[in-house]
Amino acid sequence: MATFKYIIEENITLSNQVYKTMISKEIDSIDQFYRRVTTCTSGSQTTILNVASNNHANNDGCLAHDDIKYIRITNLEITNSCEVAVVGNATSYQFFLKAGESHIIPSTNNSMLAEEDTSPSFGTMADIDKVIVKPESGDANVEIVAVSV
To answer: 98 and 78 in contact (C-beta within 8 Å)?
Structure first.
């Protein structure tokens, strides 16, 4: 077992005034660290993470919903952008990652809700089942890091 720590730091200087914030979080009892860099082919969808009800649900290296405590998805490209889909059992949400950008998901268990309108229902959350990447133009190297207990 280990403690996983991540730090988010923001710095800017405007009109000779320095603004700096730092947020850190530690997660105890981690026993799995998953890191993968995948070349996602232009024009194709590539699944970069599968999540299931338990680690033995199938043979494709699934991590368990209840065990995941942190996910980071980073577009490692210098110029190419990607669309990323976070897929649940019945819905998905998508976002855009420009070159060098990251997206953090704090857990996969009861952590997403996709809606068609602009009035949030703040309803029942669903589990995340997979993450899919589709590069905008040209291949893209995408890194995913996940830690679980």
So the answer is: no
